[in-house]
Specification:
The structure holds three protein chains of three kinds. By secondary structure, chain B is α/β, with parallel strands linked by helices. Chain B contains 13 helices and 15 strands. Chain C is built from eleven helices and two strands. The chains are: A mainly alpha, B alpha/beta, C mainly alpha.
């Protein structure tokens, strides 16, 4: 089932680049295009958030480690930011990065325990790992309200520059732009890292670890680095989610959904590419919400499953897989 | 050959471009509003997939029956009601998107449906923004109605469960060693908390208060613990599958409490069918069931059962009735608005809802200042010989509670 | 109280091992993660339920039917899995995740969201053994699981076919070099896995309940036990199931039911940290 040749046609690259730039501009002017229709913007805000989540996951994936437990970081990020802003009345400008840092701390713990494992063992260990922060959050009633969940979390923060201010939490349009800027910044970081020498090191580690060690690449350090960065941004995404949806409970933010979704987008979009996961998120999620939902109010999940199966069978390297191979 | 091989790559890519073009076209066509003047649009958002699919579908069915009944009787003010149905996938972010879609795109007049507060809450925030009334079918927690949202109404509340439970425990059963188990969900946790408070006020002590995760595959260690502590009455805030497993394992281990009370998920025909004779002597709370209805509403109740059975080939349960009641509230409120010769818009419907006084089989529905139903109260039922018998409060009781539960050896 | 916990822990633990065996075998031989494993189990349960309810078949006769259904579905699945390219493990996760969604929604469509049970009255009776009460269902679970595990053990360690399977688990390439038809071994592992699921499914519908999305928990259970025992290692699996089951029960009694899920996670992580190759595996040099 090999559809693509190894050679990449120069004209293809041009079309691809034009398409990318076009897509970027469409995203920027989307609110104007849809006249600030909250429904469409809401869906795209979430799509962008999921894109950032997928990018963060992919940061780890690119070094060869498949994590099935990123919901641990997502949940910790969500709860940290929500609790700090609710109980201590701190601004999300502060609580969101702190959430990311706490998630990184958790990532350090996960790294110390799990990173000595490889491949399947690592993946399954991460799957088990989610239970630890989840059960602690669920049972520590005094701190987290336990199973009751958190309600009435504040929205995204307000930016004040002198007299002028923008309340990102008050309008969907503003939230959209904040999440857009965040996702794009993350994309930029990912592009910068993947294209640098570090990116080459990642490729070496994931393809042939022993050879990489032989050449002098300190695989363990790089893998830990990837895990920490990945955890940080996943935590931030979790915090943003809490401020967007404003209702969280342990079974939601630590649930399998947030572990599986970034992986699915990364696989569909292209696991080792820069743009792949984000692209898959921005395309698949809105298609599901705009087209599948109204068409089949009760059966759209079926379509989602079918797409997954078809994607993995016929486009194993994702939409953009072959792109980076030459 | 090479050219053919390249097509699929470009194909995917052009698909991507086309998607943007479609979106562009669609959004440019936004201003074009399709006006079906002769139709009244109501929206409903329920979990039709995901972990609450079962209840979501049942609420949806209840709403369907209410709307079909109204349409058959001529609709509202001569106009037919159209229900726009959406699935929130049991996820809050999707619930928000669906609410946005119904309010801004479909431009519905009101919204109903909804199961569990983690889904109803986000939807209520959206409807408040658009000033569209929302009558939630199955929301329970206190927090939701504390936020002064004038557009949120609901036909159920947690106190409706807690009061009768507290009552039967303190007045009739009077256990010496009571255990309260609850599931790790917001609704169940709050039920346990409120019950504890109420019992404390009446001086009844809880010996064991434990939380378990819904869907636990094995309750044996918990049952062994209960047996060792000689617990006589067990109240479990778990859900249907938890009760099924728990009761089964009670039987397997030959542990017989004097009573087992499960407020959620037991008073259902499907539960009784699943467990058969083992379901006997279990207690639950019930808002409504075919045969258990507010005194004076027997005819309306029977008519609902009739319509439901004709449509779905199975008897309705209390979850269906919650959907039915919430939709009915909206329909009657809208009829009231038209009767006063007022235009049908969100604000007027909201106002009509605040004045609503409707006798339904499930409750005498009228909302308080927060949007809570003032007279929502369950009765306590016990399953006897495969049938639900009301055992509390005494003024609605149709039989006596069989207490204590006969042991498993005696029952076989 | 401790005997009750012990008895139920052992019988339930044996059943969980039965569930996990199919997953472990398939993963060991073909390196395919089958995240739809639990859903296949539920499907087997539903097949048995349908036969029992709609056609009034006695419970015992539902087993062959369930096995047949799962065999067919598994072979179909195996066709799909064999088309995956590297990295097989990750791709199989995504593929089986998608298949799991498909199976779940089909079951929801055909059987609706009601909870279903297969009631076999005789299994809720029991006998007293030296003062302790053991129900027939616990005995059945224990015996059936042990017999099946024993038979599989016989197959794996006493037959030539078993040797070939074990060789493939250990090292696919070396096995191929030794002349073993690796693809056939893959198909065989799927078939054996299907039989195991077909046996466990009706039992599951009997001692637990059937609901379209319970498959997820069963899959997690299978994965946990498999890693605990050591991926690809079958001799440690029974011990793994028992230890996990007993540990969880002890946690509920000593710490409370709300800590149950964390225990298996912590156990697993501790084990992986110190003995990455599982309970009975030899450590890496």
């Amino acid at each position: 089932m090999i559809f693509f040749t190894q050679k990449i046609n120069p004209s293809e690259i041009k079309v691809y680049r034009v398409g990318l730039v076009l897509g970027f501009f469409v995203l920027i002017v989307l609110p104007l295009m849809v006249q600030s229709n909250d429904y469409i913007l809401q869906v795209f805000t979430h799509a962008l958030l999921l894109a950032s989540l997928a990018l963060a996951w992919n940061f780890l994936g690119v070094s060869g480690s498949i994590s099935l437990g990123h919901a641990a970081f997502f949940g910790v990020g969500a709860y940290t930011s929500a609790l700090l802003s609710l109980d201590q009345a701190l601004s999300p400008w502060f609580t969101i990065p702190v959430a990311g840092l706490l998630a990184t701390g958790l990532g350090l713990i996960m790294g110390l325990i799990c990173l000595r494992l490889r491949g399947a063992y690592f993946a399954l260990a991460t799957l088990a790992f989610v239970e630890v922060p989840r059960v602690i959050t669920d049972n520590w009633d005094a701190l987290t309200r336990g199973s009751l969940g958190l309600v009435g979390i504040s929205g995204l923060p307000t930016l004040r520059l002198g007299d002028w201010y923008v309340d990102f939490g008050s309008s969907i349009t503003a939230s959209y732009y904040l999440v857009f800027v965040y996702s794009f910044a993350l994309l930029g970081l990912v592009a910068f890292v993947f294209r640098s020498n570090m990116g080459l090191a990642f490729q070496a580690i994931r393809e042939e670890e022993i050879a990489a060690e032989a050449v002098g690449i300190q695989t363990n350090r790089y893998r830990l680095f990837c895990l920490l960065i990945s955890a940080f941004f996943t935590g931030i995404s979790g915090a943003c989610y809490a401020h967007l949806v404003r209702y969280i409970e342990p079974s939601l933010v630590y649930g399998l959904h947030f572990s599986a979704i970034p992986m699915i987008f990364a696989v569909c979009g292209g696991r080792f590419t820069i743009l792949g996961p984000a692209l898959a998120a921005i395309v698949l999620y809105p298609v599901d919400q705009f087209i599948f939902h109204p068409l089949l109010p009760a059966g759209h999940e079926f379509l989602y499953g079918a797409i997954l199966v078809l994607a993995v069978l016929f486009i194993p390297d994702g939409f953009l897989g072959r792109r980076q191979n030459a | 050959m090479e050219k053919i091989k390249k097509y699929p790559k470009n194909l995917l890519f052009w698909l991507f471009i086309c998607l943007w073009i479609i979106l562009l076209l669609v959004t440019l066509l936004l201003p074009v509003e399709t006006c079906f003047a002769a139709v009244i649009k109501i929206g409903e958002i329920n979990p039709l997939s995901g972990r609450f699919a079962k209840q979501g579908i049942e609420i949806h069915q209840g709403i369907e029956v209410a709307v079909a009944e109204a349409n058959a009787a001529g609709g509202i003010g001569g106009m037919q009601i159209q229900v726009v149905s959406r699935d929130d996938q049991s996820r809050p972010d999707v619930a928000i998107s669906r609410a946005e879609e119904l309010c801004s795109w479909e431009k519905v007049l009101a919204i109903t449906g909804g199961y569990v507060d983690s889904l109803v809450g986000p939807i209520a925030a959206v409807t408040q923004k658009y000033k569209i009334p929302y009558v939630a079918s199955a929301s329970l927690q206190k927090e939701l109605t504390q936020h002064k949202n004038p557009y949120l109404f609901r036909v159920s509340k947690l106190q409706g469960f807690v009061e009768p439970l507290c009552g039967i425990l303190t007045e009739q059963l009077k256990p010496l060693r009571l255990a309260v188990l609850y599931a790790a969900t917001p609704g169940s946790t709050e039920l346990a908390g409120e019950l504890e408070k109420c019992l404390k006020k009446q001086g009844l002590k809880i010996r064991m208060l434990e939380k378990f995760r819904p869907g636990t595959p094995d309750f044996t260690p918990l049952i062994a613990k209960l047996a060792r502590m000689k617990i006589d009455v067990i109240v479990s805030g778990g859900f249907t599958p938890d009760h099924i497993l728990f009761v089964r394992q009670l039987k397997e281990n030959r542990v017989t409490p004097k009573a087992y009370i499960g407020p959620f998920g037991i008073a259902y025909e499907s539960f009784i069918q699943a467990l058969g004779k083992d379901a006997d002597y279990l207690y639950s709370t019930c808002a409504w069931n075919p045969g258990i209805t507010l005194p004076g509403t027997e005819e309306a109740s029977a008519s609902f059962v009739n319509h439901f059975e004709k449509r779905f080939n199975q008897p309705p349960n209390t979850t269906n009735m919650h959907g039915y009641t919430s939709a009915k509230a909206l329909i009657v409120a809208m009829q009231n608005v038209l009767n006063k010769q007022l235009p049908l818009n969100g604000e007027n419907i909201r106002h009509a809802l605040t004045l609503l006084d409707l006798v339904m089989p499930m409750e005498h529905l009228h909302f308080d200042a927060q949007g809570d139903p003032e007279d929502y109260r369950h009765v306590v039922v016990q399953i006897q010989k495969g049938k639900l018998v009301v055992v509390y409060p005494p003024d609605r009781a149709s039989g006596h509670a069989i207490y204590p539960m006969p042991s498993w050896e005696q029952r076989n | 109280m401790w005997t009750t916990i012990f008895i139920s822990g052992i019988s339930l633990g044996s059943f969980y091992v039965l569930v996990a065996l199919g997953f472990a075998l398939i993963f060991g031989v073909t390196r395919n993660f089958n995240l739809a494993h639990g859903d296949l189990l539920v499907l087997a349960g539903y097949s048995a339920y349908w036969l029992w309810k709609a056609w009034a078949f006695p419970f015992v006769f539902t087993f062959p039917f369930a096995i047949l259904v799962i065999l067919l579905v598994s072979l179909g699945l195996q066709r799909l899995f064999s088309r995956l390219r590297d990295p097989i493990e990750l791709n199989s996760i995504v593929l089986s995740f998608g298949v799991a969604i498909l199976i779940q929604n089909s079951m929801l469509f055909f059987f609706s969201g009601n909870y279903r049970l297969i009631r076999v009255p005789i299994l809720s009776q029991g006998i007293r053994i030296s003062g302790f009460y053991v129900s027939y269902s616990q005995l059945t679970l224990l015996l059936l699981s042990l017999v099946t595990i024993g038979t599989l053990y016989m197959l794996m360690y006493r037959t030539y076919l078993g040797k070939a399977l074990r060789a493939t688990i250990q090292d696919k390439d070396a096995a191929a070099l030794a002349g073993i038809n690796v693809a056939a071994m893959g198909t065989l592992s799927f078939c054996i896995g299907a039989v195991l699921i077909g046996l466990a499914g009706p039992l599951y519908g009997c001692i637990h309940y059937l609901y379209p999305s319970t498959g997820h928990e069963a899959t997690l259970l299978a994965i946990t036990i498999t890693i605990f025992a050591g991926v690809g290692r079958l001799n440690g699996i029974l011990l793994a199931g028992w230890i996990l089951g007993l540990a969880e029960s002890l946690t509920v009694v000593l710490c409370g039911a709300s800590w149950r899920e964390m225990v298996s996670a912590v156990l697993l992580l501790t084990l992986l940290a110190f003995r990455p190759h599982g309970l009975l595996g030899k450590g890496e040099g």
